[in-house]
């Protein structure tokens, strides 16, 4: 079972940076993400979702391959490629895997204007090692929402607080 963790940041750039760092951490098998979306509540009041994966583009690529293959079989690869790409893009755009977009939009509206959040759907993780790797971002981060149990959420809050104190101690030294 996956858990939702939403972490707020004062600026969208920092949320994007953390998401990119998590991709590297994921390759080290310290965290396994199903979805990672940056939510932005812009100064003008508009809400923007920055998905990690563009499902329509992924569907178009997959559809193009299968369409061209079918087209080769029936001796018309260009028509097969075009039909496959269109069908793949449509199916990719219609499939909503990961975190529900409407939930994310509603959550984005609760953020202060000009700020951002990073919504993660975490399948598995080693929280202490992940927080340690992201320590430089912890002083700006705040836990917005989780689907963790109360005990696990408190442990995560304690890890974040400890990391923030360590960063602050290094700044004062």
Mind explaining what this structure looks like?
By secondary structure, the protein is of the alpha+beta class. Helices cover 53% and strands 23% of the residues. The chain contains six helices and five strands, in the order βαββαααβαβα. The chain has helices at 12-27, 55-73, 77-94, 101-109, 127-133, 150-172; strands at 3-9, 31-41, 47-51, 115-125, 142-146. A five-stranded antiparallel sheet has the order 3-2-4-1-5, sandwiched between helices. Helix 2 packs antiparallel against helix 3 (77-94) and helix 5 runs parallel beside helix 6. The longest helix has 23 residues, at 150-172. The protein is globular, with a radius of gyration of 20 Å. 28% of the residues are buried.
As a percent range, the share of helical residues equals: 40-55%
Structural class: alpha+beta
Q: Overall mean pLDDT score?
A: 81
What ranges have pLDDT less than 50 throughout 5 or more consecutive residues?
54-60, 89-96
Shape: globular
Strands ordered across the widest β-sheet = 3-2-4-1-5
The helix/strand order is EHEEHHHEHEH
Q: Roughly what fraction of the amino acids lie in strands?
A: 15-25%
What Rg is obtained from the alpha carbons, in whole angstroms?
20 Å
Determine the N-to-C terminus distance.
42 Å
The counted number of beta strands is 5
Number of helices: 6
Major sheet:
5 strands, antiparallel
Structure keywords:
alpha+beta, globular, 173 residues, 6 helices
Please write out the topology.
Blueprint: E1 3-9, H1 12-27, E2 31-41, E3 47-51, H2 55-73, H3 77-94, H4 101-109, E4 115-125, H5 127-133, E5 142-146, H6 150-172
Helix pairs in contact: 2-3, 5-6
